[in-house]
Amino acid sequence: MAGITIRNLTKSYTGDAAAAALTDLSLDIADNQFVTLLGPSGCGKTTTLRAIAGYITPDRGTIHVDGRLVSSPGSVVPPDSRGMGMVFQNYAVWPHKTVFENVVFGLKIRKMSTADARDRVARALDLVNMTGLEGRYPNELSGGQQQRVALARSLVVEPEILLLDEPLSNLDAKLRERMRVELKQLQRRTGITFIYVTHDQAEALALSDQIAVMHGGKLQQFGTPFEVYAKPSNRVVADFMGLVNIVPAQLDAVAGGRGHIAGPHLALELPVPDWAKAGDDIELAIRPENIEINTRGADSAAAVATVTERTFLGNINEYYATLNSGQVLRVQTHPLQQFAVGDTVAVTIDASQCSIFMRAGAPASTSRVQG
């Protein structure tokens, strides 16, 4: 198996450094990890994957695999000499070939003996739960089965690293969810390093050991699913990783690592980062599940609000609660906790789970509130 070391990787397709697809990316991807490159369209995640695969030459920076230099501005090891497999979004299986013929193709290129190739194909198909379907053609398979064929074709050559470019995006919701589980189990069984590209936050959270959140061609945060969701490094990550309320506020006092926000409609005491000082204009990032609404009375909560919208989503209720200041908070509750539009509710915010950032236009230094 192999780890990947990326240092200061930069790539522009236009020659304009100001419009680079990727800027100074540095990542350390450990062996036997499931790592996801996550971000919106145009963030640089596919460029990163293609650079790892050897399909593009970087303008600056290097990529090492298990200590071996495979990419630099002056030299790129060809894709077929990197010990990697790749699975594409559109499956890329040959429609005129059977499942067996699709999967065995890479072994034929390597001139492996027929007996050994058959054994390899059988093991690969077993890994992806496709045993017994060797003679079928792609048009006789479901979308999920075609994706398994693409996985088997990559696994049969026993790659050290498997690269996956949004491989589940063409599947329906239920099949996509089932394939997530199968992919994670497959990675654990094989011990192969998986590098996975997606724009789907839920997919990244469900699959990954580590997530690299990207935006504007730059790495924003690299950490575990819990870290990037609960401890975002900046507002971009907080806003991208699931639902979040961004609430403007001002720190009235800071002492001993704690800050106080006082206002007619919102009062909180919370841990603050080292850069925070009294008078700072800040933004609070508050997840909907970290807000509680109830009818205990205004004196028991940080704020009073009016329920202005309600949506039943099966496993949760989602409410929009409008504070007297006009600030709207998105709140999620247990489905049995019922409120009607127009109800007056008390709002309690778990301050220990808030993230705090300098407000736009203020100094750029940002940090996560440490609870």
UniProtKB/TrEMBL annotation:
- Topological category with respect to the lipid bilayer: Peripheral membrane protein
Question: Would the keyword ATP-binding be found if you checked this record's keyword annotation?
Answer: yes
Reading the lineage from the top rank, the first entry is Bacteria
Where is the protein found, in the record's own terms? Answer: Cell inner membrane
Q: Where is the signal peptide?
A: none
Q: Which GO terms describe its cellular component?
A: ATP-binding cassette (ABC) transporter complex
Name of the protein in its database record: ABC transporter ATP-binding protein
The similarity annotation says:
Belongs to the ABC transporter superfamily.
SMART domains named among the record's database cross-references? AAA (SM00382)
Q: Which GO terms describe its molecular function?
A: ABC-type transporter activity; ATP binding; ATP hydrolysis activity
Q: Which PROSITE patterns match?
A: ABC_TRANSPORTER_1, ABC_TRANSPORTER_2
Fetch the Pfam families from UniProt.
Answer: ABC_tran, TOBE_2
Q: Which UniProt keywords apply?
A: ATP-binding, Nucleotide-binding, Transport
Q: Where do the ABC transporter domain residues begin and end?
A: 4-241
Question: Which InterPro entries has this protein been placed in?
Answer: AAA+_ATPase (IPR003593), ABC_SmlMolc_Importer (IPR050093), ABC_transporter-like_ATP-bd (IPR003439), ABC_transporter-like_CS (IPR017871), Mo/tungstate-bd_C_term_dom (IPR008995), NA-bd_OB-fold (IPR012340), P-loop_NTPase (IPR027417), Transp-assoc_OB_typ2 (IPR013611)
Q: Can the keyword Nucleotide-binding be found in this entry's annotation?
A: yes
